[in-house]
């Protein structure tokens, strides 16, 4: 099954593909990836443009921890680069606003404050799957990665701090 095959599904509000429809295919994918990537973005042009060729039935997924330095240097779809940059700039207000500078949602702020990492694990792919020069490529989590970039740039978090990601590759 190719990522482009997701365009055949009926969509609900917000152009999401219903999880129940995706689950019937028994794809070997973590629920979080199924929701964030396939359901939330499977019918969106920007994602089809990047990932339509991927054989999602052959993708392997693993949750792993990587240092911030590796994550913030990941490749990013050029149309989403501005989002990552703008979010990274929010952290310039950190000294006055503390963790409130990275998000407005209480649960997100509380998680960053306590754990010094994101609440929901973002999604990355092996850069080779997309002929990228970089080792990993960000799929979903542009706001999260932007916050991490800003926190590292402002020396609030060290470059060697570890953060979980969902990592997709062909095994």
SSE topology:
Blueprint: H1 19-23, H2 31-41, H3 45-51, E1 59-67, H4 68-71, H5 81-90, H6 94-97, H7 106-115, E2 123-126, E3 136-140, H8 142-153, E4 162-170
Parallel strand pairs: 2-4
Antiparallel strand pairs: 1-4, 2-3
Helix pairs in contact: 5-8
Written overview of the protein:
The chain folds into two domains: 3-57, no CATH class; 63-170, no CATH class. Strands 1-4-2-3 form a four-stranded mixed beta sheet. Helix content is 37%, strand content 16%. The chain is globular. It contains eight helices and four strands. The model has no long low-confidence stretch (mean pLDDT 95). 31% of the residues are buried. The chain is α+β, with helices and mostly antiparallel strands and 171 residues long.
What attributes characterize this protein structure?
single chain, 171 residues, alpha+beta, 2 domains, four-stranded mixed sheet
Short synopsis of the structure:
The chain is 37% helix and 16% strand.
Distance between the termini: 16 Å
The helicity comes to 25-40%
Class based on secondary structure composition and strand pairing: alpha+beta
Order of helices and strands: HHHEHHHHEEHE
Mean pLDDT: 95
Q: Total number of β-strand segments? A: 4
Low-confidence stretches: none
* Outline: globular
Major sheet summary line: 4 strands, mixed
Strand residue content: 15-25%
- DSSP helix count? 8
What Rg is obtained from the alpha carbons, in whole angstroms?
A: 16 Å
Query: Strand order within the widest sheet?
Result: 1-4-2-3
Number of domains: 2
């Amino acid at each position: 099954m190719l990522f482009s095959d997701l365009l055949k599904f009926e969509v609900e509000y917000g152009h999401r593909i219903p999880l129940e429809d995706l689950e019937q295919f028994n794809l070997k994918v973590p629920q979080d990836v199924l929701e964030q990537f396939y359901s939330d973005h499977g019918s969106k042009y920007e994602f089809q443009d990047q990932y339509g060729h991927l054989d999602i039935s052959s993708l392997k997924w693993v949750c792993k921890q990587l240092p911030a330095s590796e994550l913030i240097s990941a490749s990013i779809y050029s149309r989403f680069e501005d989002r990552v940059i703008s979010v990274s700039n929010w952290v310039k207000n950190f000294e006055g606003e503390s963790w409130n500078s990275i998000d407005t949602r209480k649960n997100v702020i509380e998680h960053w404050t306590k754990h010094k990492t994101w609440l929901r694990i973002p999604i990355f792919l092996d850069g080779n799957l997309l002929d990228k020069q970089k080792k990993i490529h960000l799929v979903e989590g542009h706001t999260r990665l932007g916050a991490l970039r800003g926190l590292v740039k402002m020396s609030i978090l060290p470059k060697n701090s570890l953060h979980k990601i969902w990592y997709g590759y062909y095994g």
